[in-house]
Amino acid sequence: MSLSASEFYEAGMSLPPAVRKDVALRLLESVEPDAVADRAAEEWLQSEAAAAYDRLKADPSRAIPAEDVRAHFEAKWAARS
């Protein structure tokens, strides 16, 4: 049986958090690392992500529910098709 990426994601999200973490790490390890992407991600984490986290900790009312974020990106993805 073959799953689409979306079906695989949904199946994975039904797993307990500890199992999801293990599977996610194993999947990441199975992909050949791209040094440029790794460096870009690290820079983003240290600058933008850290700053956004600090702003959220300072004012938790800025938080956006995960469902709203997911719906926003699903709509953007659907608009690309």
Characterise the protein shown here.
The chain has helices at 5-13, 17-30, 35-58, 66-80. It has four helices and no strands. It has 81 residues and is an all-alpha fold. The model has no long low-confidence stretch (mean pLDDT 88). The longest helix has 24 residues, at 35-58. It is extended, with a radius of gyration of 16 Å. It has two domains: 1-31; 35-80, no CATH class.
Can you tell me the overall shape?
extended
Low-pLDDT segments = none
Percentage of residues in helical conformation: over 70%
Structural classification: mainly alpha
Report strand %.
under 5%
Count of β-strands: 0
Rg for CA atoms: 16 Å
Main sheet: strands, sense, barrel? none
N-end to C-end Cα span: 26 Å
Mean pLDDT: 88
Domain module tally? 2
How do the helices and strands follow one another from N- to C-terminus? HHHH
Give the helix tally. 4
